Every structure is written in structure tokens, then in C-alpha cells.
């Protein structure tokens, strides 16, 4: 432990001297991380003891992804020793920022869903609430993205091997997970059974400390690793193949599930996570099992952990010997579910036969849940369509979202519009059946990572005018409203923004050898690649601007740099072609002597949390241009807003609530509304071809695309072509394109009025506090989990 700079320096130097090898930056990083781990240990132990002694209700957040990002800097900050360590290291000739860069990036998530889980962890600990994460310790995490000739290529990562190990192996808590086998019903009154001839997998937890602000509360992120069980549980033959199957469970996030084998692996991962976490919760309790809902809340993050419902039933029925009614009562008062998307492809469905083979007892329980639920619905006067919607198993398919709703006591969407769409359309029948289950919890982001840590310059500026209360209660950022017309404050804000743009420019020049004009407008579209997120519309628009520059010598717009960043799922061919298209257009424009003075495209390779931390603070414009109704919430929109970037977006997800906060004048909104989109979809009245035929500019763009002129080097644009033409542009790219282009023109006009632009930025920051995940977590706690803060410590 160290309490002063001098103590820190002494301790750090002593450890350096003990090194036998020459000290590299990597060793210096490891030493520092080790010291921080020790620092955290005492509070971690104390928090755990407190939870045990006081018997506080605990929340467990089950998630297949936790996109936590690097831990060193955030931990130092939350422990309030960042400055002390920074100065101390400086005096010893080290640069803390450089050491932070040595930390391997754990890519345990792929986008907003996983990052949300990480923000929630930070907020729970910072609000001093007993809330922990349960996930999988993937050795590889998501692939790292390398661009080759503009194409995305995927490369395995191994963050664990490179890691400084924030987590601690808990062999004492290891548990065993059964797959396959035969169910032996116990013939009696109860729905009890046992499983024979199962294949066992050992689950070993690795606990990672989640340090709350001011350090006092340290919660736990428990990540499970799959291992070979002890000798007596091994199969008699072919242990090698068995071993490969076991290791695969925690090897990779999102294994390729286009094959049957891949699907089985995903299902195994999901069950592995649920079973291991639930078994441990039950095993280590010191209260009667009937009191579970009073002591434990379990939140399932999307349907990936929905097997928690039948698994908890299994443990209560077969392990605890409860009756069906008792077990069901406990389960449906303990588990609650968050839905994150209405996209059909993301609503998980499993083949009954596969589930039955891999998890026979679980399948039997799901069948019984379905049977009983159908029986109940039968008593209501429902038409056959409604009955279909209310079935969990239908035509040999298990619908996980329906299972999740039926087995939870609360169900929420992640922004107001999304929740309304769930209630009124996607889950209409379920909502009518369970009228009090559905509620909204608009997402949030932790202001500690996304403002205080990512943008210390802006944080200091804010504190210099309104004091530092906002760091504890971010809604107090409101107080900035008094300064949004103050020219001195706005001038200072402009300098900070420029500083962040310069830093990003330097970083990218160094790491990706890209030259950027830091004086240009920084327009950013950074998120997972997906059709509905419409990166395609963005690049189409840039190509249109290029055509205008070429055709009209008087058209010379204000210089803009368009940033793209994000990965496409490995098997998502369309999204991968969009990445290639962006890079092809980039090459042409960036090398054009005239156009490149006005337009510049930067594709930030291998976009991840650390890169995101450098990008959000440097943005002027936040591209949030999803097809209305498709983006459940979005959280990048909130990170941009908090850093003073202005939203250019559609009326979708949380964009709507952002505009509610700042007013129409402080964002640029365009495009068809969710209602219009849903109407087009229902009535089939949208025809992309008509736009191609009638709009000269769009017609030209599409023919350039089809002729291969636009896509030089990309011989095969068949997926883009077929989506726009054959599939009639399902994400309404062409429908919104001209409105998007006109809105960009409005953006440019305002940008040139510097003061007006800065005022808009300042209003955005001032109104962003409500989008802190502290607010979201407080609402979950008040309305769903019923947690108590640890004020007494
Ligand atoms: C998803 C939704 C987002 C939402 C996020 C967190 C699945 O994230 O699409 O709209 O904000 O969950 O609730 P993403 O697309 O980034 O993978």
C-alpha cells in the first residue's frame, strides 16, 4: 500500500530493482498493475465481508459479453490516485499514459450490449450497490481486425496470455456442468429427475475486482473458464477430442455458428455460463432457498443467458426437491430480462432437437413451462395467431425471447421508443397477457470512463466553472446551462476540443500512419457494422459529395474528415463488403488532389474501447443514422453528447430522448420516422427502384456502383447490389439519402458560425447527465432489483 507520492515512488522503485531482466515498458506496467491490485485487495475483502455479514440482497448480472476495456487507468481514477501515480511515475522518468498502452485489451464483447454491461458494473460499484457480473473468460475474445487491401481480415487474439491478470482464479469455487446424458424421472408426485451418463465440464471462476468511485466498494466480475474435469468424470475413450470440445467453450466469443457444430458450441457457452453461476449462487447461500428472491436478483442481458430460467428450475426441482409451483414461484420472482433488439435475426431461436440432445433435462423443463403456459392461455379467448405468438415451442423451434418473458418478473427495453415497439408490436400479445411486466430503462454510459477518464481536459474545464459536484451527480452538469452563451467558456471549450482533435491526429499518425487535418470537421461513425446502422448511407453520401466536387468547380465545401470504425461479424458478407467499399472510396478521394482538400476518409482499424476513448472526445459530429425503429437505444450517441459532439441522426432509439433533453435546435434530425418505416414494412409501399429512376444523383451513384466504377478493386459487390436492388433496400438507405445530404448542408452552415456551434455543443454537455449509467442503475434498483446502498461503511 502507498498513501503518498513518496511512498509510491519508493515502492515502485524497489520492485523495479528486484527485476532480474532489463526493465521494459511492459514490465513497468506489470509492476504498477500489481501494486494497484494490492491496493484494491483490502477494500475488496472488506466489501465481501460486509455483504456476507449484513446479508444484503445481491444482484447478479448475467451476460455473454462484458466489454470492459483496459482497467489500469480507470482503477487508478476510481481509487483517486491517478494524479499521485502520474506525478510519481513522471519523477521516475515514466509516462503513465505510455504504461497504460501496454495493457492488453480484453475484447470480451462486440458492441453496445457488452459495453453497457461494463458501464453497469462501474455504476453499481460507484453507487455502492451490491451488484456483480457473471460472464465467460474467453481466451480469445472478439477477433482483432486488420485491413488488407481494404478488406476486413480477422485475427485471433489472446488477451489472457498477454494479460497482467487483474483476475484471480478461484479453484475453491469450481463447479461441474452436465451436458448430454439421459434423464431418469423419479416417479412420484413431483417433477423430479436425475441425469445419468452426462458429459461433465469443469467450470472455474476467475474473479475480477470492479472498483467503484472513491474506492470503497469493490464488487466482483466473475468470469468462468471451461476446463477438463477430474479423472473420475472423464469419458472412458477419446479424451483428446473431449478435451478439445471442453476448451472450445471458453475459447472464443461468438464462434462461427453457421454450422451445426458452431450452434451447439454457442448453446454450450450459454448453458455453461448460466449453470455455473446459478450453482455457485445456490451453493454459497446462507438463507433458505424459498427466500431466494429476497436475497438475490438475477438480470439476464438479452436472451443469451435465458437458459438461466430452466436451469434455476432444474436446480430447485432436482437439487432442492421443491415442487413445480414452489420452484416456479421462486424463479419468476428472481429473474428479470432486458431485451436489446427487435431484429428478427437477433431474437434467438434454437432447434428443439438440438436442445433436447445437448440438454435433455433442460429441454424437458422448457416443454413443461410451455405446456403450462399454453394451458393458461387456452383459458383466454385468443385467436390462433395470438396463441402462436404466445408459444415458447413452436414447429420444432424454441423461442428464447418468449421463454425469457414468461420466466421473468420484469422485462424491459432500453429506450422509450424501443420499449413501446416491444409492447405494441413485437411482444404485443405477451404484454397484453402480462400487463405489468414491461417497463422501460433507457440505457446510460459511465461518465467516469467516457468523460472524466477519456477527456480530463474537458472535465477540468467543467469543474473550473461549476465545481466538481457533477462528478458525483452528473445531472448537475445542468449548471453549465448558465455558461452556454458565455464567450469565455465557449472559447475555452473550443481550445479543449482542438486539443483532443490534435491528440487523436497524432495518435493515428503514429499508429496507422494516416495524415489528418486537425482543423477539419471531425465527423464520426463508429459502431459495429450492420445494415441497419447504415454505414452504407454515409459512404454513398460521401461519394455524392465527391461527384458534386467533380461536376461543379464552384462547389468547394468546408474541409471534413469522415471517420469510420467498427467490426463486421465474421460471416456477415454484406457488412464486410461495405467496409471494403468505404476503403475503396477512401483511396480514390484521399488521393484526388482537388477532392482531398475538402473530403478525407479515415477508417480506424480494429476499433475497440481504448480507441473509442480517444475518438469520442475529438468528434464534432456524431453520426447516429440508423433506420428509424431498428436501433434499440444506442450508447455511442450518449458518449458523443457528453463530449460536446452534435448528433446528426434519425429519430430512433435514445436519439429521441437526447433531443427531448436539448431541444430540436441542438441536433440535426432527418429521415423517415419509426412509424413510417413500420408502415412501409407492413404495406410494402416502398420501392427503391423508383428513387433510382427518378433521382438523377442517386441514379448516377447506383449505376457507378453496379458498373464497378465506384467499387474498383471490389469485383464482387453482390451483397450490396442484391440488398439495394433485389431486396428492395430493406434499411431505407435510398429513401433517406437526399434528406441526409441536405441535413449535412445545414450542419456545415451552422459549423461556420463558430459561436452558434459551440453553444450547441455546450447545451449538449449540460444536458447529458441524465444519460449517465448511474441514473439507469438507480432506476433498475428502485424498480426492479431493490438493492440497498452500503452507506454505513
Ligand atoms: C445493442 C443494440 C443497441 C443498444 C445496446 C445496449 C444490441 O447493441 O443494438 O441499440 O444500445 O445493445 O442496449 P449493439 O448494436 O451496439 O451491439
Automatic annotation (TrEMBL):
Cofactor(s) in the UniProt record: pyridoxal 5'-phosphate
Alphabetized Pfam families for the sequence: Phosphorylase
Keyword flag Lyase: no
InterPro entries per the UniProt record, alphabetical: Glycg_phsphrylas, Glyco_trans_35, Pyridoxal_P_attach_site
GO molecular function: 1,4-alpha-oligoglucan phosphorylase activity
SUPFAM superfamilies per UniProt: UDP-Glycosyltransferase/glycogen phosphorylase (SSF53756)
Role of this protein: Phosphorylase is an important allosteric enzyme in carbohydrate metabolism. Enzymes from different sources differ in their regulatory mechanisms and in their natural substrates. However, all known phosphorylases share catalytic and structural properties. Allosteric enzyme that catalyzes the rate-limiting step in glycogen catabolism, the phosphorolytic cleavage of glycogen to produce glucose-1-phosphate, and plays a central role in maintaining cellular and organismal glucose homeostasis.
Family membership: Belongs to the glycogen phosphorylase family.
Name of the protein in question: Alpha-1,4 glucan phosphorylase
Organism of origin: Planococcus shenhongbingii
Amino acid at each position: 500500500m502507498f498513501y503518498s507520492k513518496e511512498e509510491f515512488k519508493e515502492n515502485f522503485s524497489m520492485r523495479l530493482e528486484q527485476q532480474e531482466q532489463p526493465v521494459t515498458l511492459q514490465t513497468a506496467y506489470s509492476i504498477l498493475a500489481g501494486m494497484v491490485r494490492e491496493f484494491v485487495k483490502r477494500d475488496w475483502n472488506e466489501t465481501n465481508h460486509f455483504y456476507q455479514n449484513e446479508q444484503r440482497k445481491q444482484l447478479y448480472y448475467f451476460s455473454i459479453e462484458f466489454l470492459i476495456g483496459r482497467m489500469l487507468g480507470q482503477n487508478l481514477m476510481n481509487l483517486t490516485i491517478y494524479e499521485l501515480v502520474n506525478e510519481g511515475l513522471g519523477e521516475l522518468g515514466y509516462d503513465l499514459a505510455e504504461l497504460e498502452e501496454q495493457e492488453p485489451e480484453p475484447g470480451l464483447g462486440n458492441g453496445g450490449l457488452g459495453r453497457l454491461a461494463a458501464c453497469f458494473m462501474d455504476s453499481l460499484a460507484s453507487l455502492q450497490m451490491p451488484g456483480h457480473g457473471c460472464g465467460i473468460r474467453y481466451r480469445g475474445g472478439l477477433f482483432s481486425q486488420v485491413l488488407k487491401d481494404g478488406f476486413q481480415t480477422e485475427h485471433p487474439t489472446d488477451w489472457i496470455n498477454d494479460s497482467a491478470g487483474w483476475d484471480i482464479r478461484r479453484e475453491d469455487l469450481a463447479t461441474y456442468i452436465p451436458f448430454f446424458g439421459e434423464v431418469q424421472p423419479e416417479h412420484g408426485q413431483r417433477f423430479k429427475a436425475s441425469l445419468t451418463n452426462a458429459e461433465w465440464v469443469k467450470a472455474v471462476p476467475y474473479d475480477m475486482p470492479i472498483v467503484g468511485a472513491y474506492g470503497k466498494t469493490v464488487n466482483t466480475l466473475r468470469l468462468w473458464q471451461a476446463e477438463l474435469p477430474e479423472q473420475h468424470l472423464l469419458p472412458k475413450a477419446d479424451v483428446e477430442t473431449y478435451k478439445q470440445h471442453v476448451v472450445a467453450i471458453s475459447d472464443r466469443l461468438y464462434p462461427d455458428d453457421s454450422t451445426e457444430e458452431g450452434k451447439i458450441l454457442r448453446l454450450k457457452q450459454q448453458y455453461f455460463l448460466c449453470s455455473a453461476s446459478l450453482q455457485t449462487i445456490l451453493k454459497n447461500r446462507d438463507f433458505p432457498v424459498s427466500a431466494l428472491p429476497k436475497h438475490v436478483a438475477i438480470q439476464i442481458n438479452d436472451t443469451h443467458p435465458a437458459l438461466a430460467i430452466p436451469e434455476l428450475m432444474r436446480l430447485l426441482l432436482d437439487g432442492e426437491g421443491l415442487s413445480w409451483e414452489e420452484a416456479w414461484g421462486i424463479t419468476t420472482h428472481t429473474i428479470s430480462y432486458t431485451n436489446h433488439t427487435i431484429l428478427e435475426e437477433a431474437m434467438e431461436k434454437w432447434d428443439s432437437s438440438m436442445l433436447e440432445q445437448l440438454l435433455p433435462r433442460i429441454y424437458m423443463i422448457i416443454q413443461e413451462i410451455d405446456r403450462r403456459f399454453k394451458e393458461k392461455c387456452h383459458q383466454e379467448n385468443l385467436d390462433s395467431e395470438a396463441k402462436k405468438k404466445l408459444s415458447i415451442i413452436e414447429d420444432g423451434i424454441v423461442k428464447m425471447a418468449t421463454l425469457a418473458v414468461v420466466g421473468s418478473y420484469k422485462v424491459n427495453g432500453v429506450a422509450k421508443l424501443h420499449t413501446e415497439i416491444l409492447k405494441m408490436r413485437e411482444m404485443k400479445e405477451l404484454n397484453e397477457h402480462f400487463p405489468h411486466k414491461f417497463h422501460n430503462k433507457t440505457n446510460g454510459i459511465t461518465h467516469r470512463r467516457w468523460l472524466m477518464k477519456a477527456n480530463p481536459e474537458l472535465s477540468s474545464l467543467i469543474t473550473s466553472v461549476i465545481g466538481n459536484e457533477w462528478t458525483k451527480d452528473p445531472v448537475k452538469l445542468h449548471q453549465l446551462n448558465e455558461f452556454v452563451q458565455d464567450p469565455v467558456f465557449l472559447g475555452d471549450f473550443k481550445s479543449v476540443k482542438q486539443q483532443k482533435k490534435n491528440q487523436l491526429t497524432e495518435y493515428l499518425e503514429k499508429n496507422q500512419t494516416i495524415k489528418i487535418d486537425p482543423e477539419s470537421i471531425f465527423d464520426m461513425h463508429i459502431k459495429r457494422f450492420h445494415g441497419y446502422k447504415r454505414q452504407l448511407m454515409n459512404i454513398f453520401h460521401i461519394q455524392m459529395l465527391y461527384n458534386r466536387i467533380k461536376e461543379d468547380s464552384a462547389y468547394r465545401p468546408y474541409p471534413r474528415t469522415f471517420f469510420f470504425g467498427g467490426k463486421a461479424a465474421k460471416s456477415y458478407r454484406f457488412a464486410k463488403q461495405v467496409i471494403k467499399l468505404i476503403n475503396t472510396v477512401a483511396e480514390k478521394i484521399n488521393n484526388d488532389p482537388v477532392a482531398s482538400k475538402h473530403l478525407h476518409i479515415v477508417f480506424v482499424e480494429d476499433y475497440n474501447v481504448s480507441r473509442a476513448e480517444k475518438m469520442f472526445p475529438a468528434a464534432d459530429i456524431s453520426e447516429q443514422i440508423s433506420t428509424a425503429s431498428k436501433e434499440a437505444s444506442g450508447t455511442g450517441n450518449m458518449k458523443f453528447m457528453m463530449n460536446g459532439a452534435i448528433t446528426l441522426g434519425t429519430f430512433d432509439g435514445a436519439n429521441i430522448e437526447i433531443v427531448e433533453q436539448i431541444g430540436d435546435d441542438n441536433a440535426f434530425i432527418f429521415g423517415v420516422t419509426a412509424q413510417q418505416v413500420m408502415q412501409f414494412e407492413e404495406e410494402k409501399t416502398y420501392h427503391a427502384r423508383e428513387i433510382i429512376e427518378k433521382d438523377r444523383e442517386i441514379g448516377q451513384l447506383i449505376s457507378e456502383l453496379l458498373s464497378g466504377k465506384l467499387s474498383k478493386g471490389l469485383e464482387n459487390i453482390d451483397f450490396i447490389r442484391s440488398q439495394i436492388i433485389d431486396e428492395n433496400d430493406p434499411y431505407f438507405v435510398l429513401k433517406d439519402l437526399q434528406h441526409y445530404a441536405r441535413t449535412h448542408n445545414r450542419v456545415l452552415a451552422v459549423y461556420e458560425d463558430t459561436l452558434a456551434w459551440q453553444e450547441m455543443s455546450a447545451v449538449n454537455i449540460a444536458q447529458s447527465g441524465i444519460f449517465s449509467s448511474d441514473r439507469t442503475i438507480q432506476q433498475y434498483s428502485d424498480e426492479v432489483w431493490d438493492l440497498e446502498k452500503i452507506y454505513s461503511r
